[in-house]
């Protein structure tokens, strides 16, 4: 019974990732397949409140990250210690899972790739 819940969450995460990539437009790239399992683990705790963003890192500042998406720049608060896979470097592609808190996007997970 427990595995069926994980499979359902993984399916929701995969569908959500495809939906986000569709919204972001043709410039967006899919996250590498090895990150799908990591994304599903993060989604276990806060899927209903999490939104995904895909784009290229344009700035890394103390306590924040700016990602340029097809719809413009999005700034994320990093002060709550998001899960990270990969390095935070300007120019890398990134998928950021975040939730809104007091008008600010707070990152819960960041996956970067070339």
Compact summary:
By secondary structure, the chain is α/β, with parallel strands linked by helices.
Any overview of this molecule?
With 114 residues, the protein is of the alpha/beta class. 30% of the residues lie in helices and 39% in strands. The chain has 2 helices and 6 strands. The protein has helices at 2-24, 36-46; strands spanning 51-61, 64-69, 72-77, 83-85, 93-101, 104-113. A 5-stranded mixed beta barrel has the order 1-2-3-6-5. Strand 2 (64-69) and strand 3 form a beta hairpin. The longest helix is centred in the N-terminal third of the chain and has 23 residues, at 2-24. The termini are far apart. The relative contact order is 0.20.
Counted by DSSP, the helix tally is 2
Percent helix? 25-40%
Count of β-strands: 6
Strand content of the residues, in percent?
Answer: 35-45%
Describe the main β-sheet briefly: 5 strands, mixed, barrel
Radius of gyration based on Cα positions: 13 Å
Overall geometry comes to: globular
For this structure, the quaternary state is single chain
Strand order of the largest sheet: 1-2-3-6-5
């Amino acid at each position: 019974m427990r595995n069926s819940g994980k499979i359902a969450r993984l399916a929701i995460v995969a569908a959500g990732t495809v939906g986000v990539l569709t919204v972001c437009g043709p410039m967006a790239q899919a996250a590498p397949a090895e990150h799908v399992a990591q994304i599903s683990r993060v989604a276990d705790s806060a899927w209903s409140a999490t939104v995904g963003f895909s784009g290229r890192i344009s700035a890394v500042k103390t306590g924040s990250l700016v990602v340029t998406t097809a719809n413009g720049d999005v700034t994320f608060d990093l002060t709550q210690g998001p899960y990270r896979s990969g390095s935070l470097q300007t120019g890398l592609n990134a998928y950021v899972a975040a939730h809104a808190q007091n008008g600010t996007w707070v990152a819960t997970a960041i996956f970067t790739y070339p």
